[in-house]
Structure formats: C-alpha cells, structure tokens
Design goal:
single chain; alpha+beta; Purple Acid Phosphatase, chain A, domain 2; 7-stranded mixed β-sheet; 9 helices; globular; binds fe (ii) ion
Length: 495
C-alpha cells in the first residue's frame, strides 16, 4: 500500500521537478509538450524524506476554491518584481491553450513590498485533467507545470482533508507539517478533492519566510487541489493600522468575494477597516450536495486574545448575510468553517457563541469546523445545551464525557444532525499544542489534548457526513519525523 501511494505521488511530482529545470519559453504549447515528454529522465524522490526535501514552490503557487468549483479554479502566485503576470492552462489531452492575465496585488509584508497575483481558470469540465503554469509577462519567472483534475460525480460523494492551524516560526515546523500529512496519506490511503484550513497558516503575518515555508511545504497539495481557508488571528493585524485593509491573507490567497459589505466601522476607537474588508474572508460556495460557508470570526473580535469587543452594527450585517445565505441554500448539507469556535477547550469565545450559534441552530447547520484552540474536541450542542448520548465507541485515546439521559438512545459515533449542531475543533496539523495548558471551562463530549498532530478527512455523501481523524505519533512535539499514525476517532452524521 505504501508503495502505491508513493508511486502515484511521484508521477505527479516528477512532472513538476522536470518543468522546474527547463529554460523559460513563452511558446507555451511547445514547453508544455516538452515537460510531459521528458518526465522519465529526472531522478525521482522515492521516500517521504526525499519527497519533503525536494519540495519547492518559489512562486508560492496555490489553487483556491471558487463559487463554481465544478467549472473553475482560482489561482494565486508571487513574482519577485513589479511586473505583470499570467496563467496558462489547457486540458491535458488537448492543445486548447488558454492564457489569462492575472490581477496584481501589491502587498506590504513586513518592511518589504510583495507582488502577488490572482486569476481564475474558467470553462473547466468535471472529470478532466488540466495542466497549467504561471509566468511573469516577459517569461523570466515561470513556475513548474502542474496538473489538477476537476472531480466528476461530487454530487454523490466528496472528501476533504482538514489542516488546522499550520502556523510555524521555523522551517522545521513546516517540514514537520509536511511529514505529518504525508505519513497520514501513506497510512490511510485516503484521496481528497480539496483541502480546508481554519486559518493561522502562518504565525506572523508580516514575516515573508513563513508564507514561503507554508507554500513550499504545502506544494504537494496546494498546486493540485483547491484550498479553502478562513482568516485566523495570526493573519490579521491591529485594527488601527492602515495595513488592516491590505492584509497578507488577501495577497497570498484568492478566495470568493461574495461575503457581506459592511457599513463604516465606527464603534471601536480608531478602527480603520473598510466596508469591503471581509471580501475573500467570509464567503460561501456549493460543493456537490453541500453548502460550505467560511465566516471570518475576527469580525467578532477586537484583535485581542480575549476577543471581547466588536462592532455590533456590522455584526448585524454579518448575521443578515449568514441567515440569507443559509436560507437560499438548496443543498442537503451545510458546513461552516470558523477560526475561533464557540465551544473550544482553550478559549471561551463568547462573542462567537452568542452571535452565531443561534443562527446555526435555526438553520440546522450540520457541522461547524474550527481551529485556534490547539486542542482537539467534539461537542454536539442545541440551543447552547449539550446533547445527551447513551453510547459511544471505545476510545483508546482522549477523554470521553457523555451526558446521559434515559430518554435518549443516541450513539456518539453515529447520530442525526437533527439532534444538534456538531462543533468540531482540530488539533494543530503542525507543532503548536496547548496540551491542557489552557482551559476555557467549556464542556465538550470528547477531547484529545495530547501533543500529536491530528489530520481529519471528511467525506460527504448523499446521506451522511463521515469523519475519520488520524493522529500522528511523535517522540516530542517539535520532532520533524513521526513515529507512527493512528486513528483517533471516527464518527458519522446523518440527517
Ligand atoms: Fe488562532
């Protein structure tokens, strides 16, 4: 099994490596053909350590979800100078080359200016594979050639990988992150259609190297699968700093712009956020039979760890947008992505709980995913009351605490979302753990606070949401190389 995964990975990986070694050539139909024809001449990495060592993504190329993921793909990249950029793509088995100009986003990052670019590849067909690359207008900077496939049949079933809080402060942190993911993929043999993260992809939003490391060690998925991410507190800045309106998050990422438009932010002294601040942070899209919503929980915070103040007037606009968005959905499932969750183990984020959970209850949201707490938990709540469960699987790790009530026969590992909303908080995918050091006092049914990365896979079918959370064993939290992988828990939500 291990060899099968590595072989599949390496076939794709080798295409990129070969393309990197070619000289730039704006006659793209020729270069694209060449890149495929010489694939077998490259020395291929054959083990996970070799794969991690070979990871490269100097132009920070990333694919991103769009409002129409069955026919389009968002893309973002970086160039080193103030120039124009473009994307070229074609269906891999056809010579239908399409070149599109990218929109430049001049972004201050620390003491430097970074030139970032976004575009959207459109007219795509489910079931087809596309090859693409990005380039500066004069061809002096060009990425590798990558491929992605638009899934077919996602109305029936799709899967996404969930990577909580990848934030790191050293390249070794991100190497550990890549090792953890690759070991889980190798162990589980899971395939996935997109990748989701609750934010905090970097520890310091104004440190360029952290962004570079994130893209480098995410390259094996982010150049081939769309990324879905919401804003974390580590990707934002002071509300009184004018840079709040040109965040690095907006520069490095490219997400749907269908979120709310606010009134003036006037309730917190010196708040400089503009009315379109939340575009590309709060957004929604349909994927198969699910409606998926990212909500920027920093809108409900004042930038402090306690997250105590917020602009109430604009929170009402957010609530109206959310209610309208859920009301207009005709999909079977509704899944919400937050950074700061309402029922986490580390922080009592009462603003998020007070403002959002009544709406989740009202519209019977099936699953709410979050991060930020760096301690894994799962809780099912309705109207701010934890739901009783009579039985559960035998958990080898973590702490299970069920409220029981003789009137209920619910199984904690297989239950209907009519019982309540499932609040699922990921342990980090990298190396930052609170490990029980923080305690919000919030009650949950299950918690796992060990210093082990956890990488869940979430499969949405016509009649269920199935979650399998894989834990990564290490001798020490900061270790790069894991010692093993285990299944932490599995559960199924039905209608
Ligand atoms: Fe956070």
């Amino acid at each position: 099994m291990k060899k099968i995964f590595l072989m599949i990975f390496l076939v794709v990986f080798s295409i990129s490596i070969v393309a990197c070694t070619q000289t730039s050539d704006t006659t793209t139909s020729t270069t694209l053909t060449e890149s495929s024809s010489v694939t077998t001449t490259t020395t291929e990495p054959t083990t996970i350590p070799e794969i991690v060592t070979a990871m490269s993504n100097p132009l920070n190329v990333g694919l991103f979800i769009t409002e129409t993921p069955e026919t389009s793909m968002g893309i973002n990249f970086k160039l080193s100078t103030d120039t124009e950029g473009y994307v070229e793509y074609h269906q891999s088995d056809l010579d239908n080359f399409i070149r599109i100009d990218a929109t430049k986003k001049v972004t201050p990052v620390g003491s430097k200016t970074v030139y970032l670019y976004e575009a959207e590849m459109t007219g795509l067909t489910p079931g087809q594979t596309y090859e693409y690359f990005v380039s500066s207008s004069d061809g002096t900077e060009q990425s590798a050639r990558y491929e992605f496939t638009i899934p077919s049949g996602i109305d029936n079933s799709f899967t996404f990988m969930y990577l909580a809080d990848p934030q790191g402060t050293a390249i070794t942190n991100y190497m550990a992150y890549a090792y953890s993911i690759l070991n889980v993929l190798d162990y589980s043999q899971m395939s996935y259609d997109f990748v989701m993260s609750p934010g905090d992809t970097v520890n310091d939003h104004d440190v360029r190297s952290e962004w570079d490391w994130f893209f480098q060690y995410s390259s094996f998925f982010i150049t081939r699968k769309p990324f879905v991410v919401t804003l974390g507190n580590h990707e934002t800045g002071y509300l009184t700093d004018e840079r709040i309106n040109s965040l690095e998050f907006d520069g490095y990422f490219n997400l749907p712009n269908n979120g709310p438009t606010y009134d003036e932010f006037s309730e917190i002294d010196g708040d400089l956020r503009e009315s379109d601040f939340d575009k590309g942070k709060t957004y929604s899209f349909d994927y198969g039979n699910a409606h998926i919503i990212s909500i920027n929980t920093e809108i409900l915070c004042d930038g402090t760890t306690a997250c105590s103040e917020y602009d109430h007037s604009n929170a009402e606009i957010l609530k109206s947008w959310l209610r309208n968005d859920l009301d207009n959905s005709n999909k079977t499932w509704s899944i919400v992505l937050l950074h700061r969750g309402p029922y986490g183990l580390s922080y009592d984020t009462y603003n998020v709980r007070d403002v959002l959970t009544p709406i989740f209850d009202e519209f019977n949201v099936d699953l709410v995913l979050s991060g930020h707490d760096h301690q894994y938990s799962r809780a099912v709540y309705k109207n701010d009351v934890m739901i009783p469960f009579q039985e559960a699987n035998n958990y080898e790790r973590g702490i299970l605490t069920l409220i029981t009530d003789e009137l209920y026969t619910n199984n904690f590992n297989n239950y209907s979302s009519t019982l309540g909303v499932t609040y699922f908080t990921g342990n980090t995918s990298t190396v930052k753990f609170y490990g029980g050091d923080k305690n919000s006092g919030i009650e949950v049914q299950y918690k796992f606070i060990d210093e082990s990365p956890v990488i869940p896979f979430i499969t949405v079918t016509a009649d269920s949401i199935q979650v399998v959370s894989y834990g990564v064993s290490k001798n020490a939290a900061l270790d790069i190389v894991p010692t093993g992988v285990f299944i932490l828990e599995e559960f199924t939500i039905t209608k």
